[in-house]
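Customer escalation, tier 2.

The customer says the design service returned an amino acid string that "doesn't look like it belongs to this structure." They asked us to rerun it and document both sides in this ticket. The original structure tokens are below, unchanged.
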């Protein structure tokens, strides 16, 4: 029986690496193009694709009261609309599975740093300079749990993990101890010392320049 592999996409990292400054938001097509590049990697040739897992947080919804007393509907922001559309399109691509974390509003912060403007001190009247401080929760945990589940149940023998985050080292170590191979795709992003030693293969090329199979 052919070996099988799964692709794990860290959405926050993917969006950061695929989007250029002042360019439109990342599209489902662009993400799928990256997946096809990964599938063509020489090490994965002849293997069966089990599934592509895309880990992201659902957009925040509902009204919140800003510190200046005005209301903001998170569900109507351009970011929320773009992410909803992205998730809908990705869900329709064959062999894609979307795994969701959550977004949590931690408070509010000024969108300009001290020393960068002559308008300090700022007050609550500077409403246009306030932006939500949002934290993402649950995504790293789901990636780790899925890596453990797929390897323990022997659904896959190879995991292609696309991230630059060293937080996944424990999951990578576990998968390798259970006999799976771990490929780390950094998309040209730097990684901390020690991350590479927990991957069987590190592919550092940027999107669009990943290795192609030998004819």
């Amino acid at each position: 029986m052919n070996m099988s592999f799964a692709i794990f996409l860290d959405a926050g990292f993917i969006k950061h690496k695929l989007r250029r400054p002042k360019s439109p938001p990342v599209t489902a097509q662009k993400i799928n193009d990256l997946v096809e590049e990964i599938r063509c990697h020489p090490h994965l040739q002849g293997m069966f694709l089990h599934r592509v897992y895309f880990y992201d947080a659902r957009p925040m919804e509902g009204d919140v009261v800003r510190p200046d007393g005005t209301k903001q509907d998170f569900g109507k922001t351009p970011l929320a609309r773009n992410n909803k559309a992205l998730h809908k399109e990705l869900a329709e691509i064959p062999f894609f599975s979307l795994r969701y974390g959550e977004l949590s509003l931690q408070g509010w912060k000024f969108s300009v740093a001290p020393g960068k403007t002559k308008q300090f001190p700022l007050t609550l009247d500077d409403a246009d300079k306030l932006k939500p401080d949002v934290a993402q929760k649950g995504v790293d945990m789901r990636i780790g749990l899925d890596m453990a589940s797929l390897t323990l149940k022997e659904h896959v023998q190879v995991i292609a993990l696309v991230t630059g985050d060293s937080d996944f080292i424990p999951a990578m170590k576990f998968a390798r101890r259970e006999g799976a191979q771990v490929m780390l795709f950094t998309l040209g992003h730097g990684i901390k010392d020690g991350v590479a030693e927990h991957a069987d293969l590190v592919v550092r090329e940027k999107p669009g320049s990943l290795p192609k199979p030998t004819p």
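Tier 2 assessment: The sequence is consistent with the input. The mean pLDDT is 84. Strands lie at 4-10, 48-57, 63-65, 71-73, 96-110, 130-137, 158-162, 181-185, 201-203. Sent an explanation to the customer and offered a walkthrough call.
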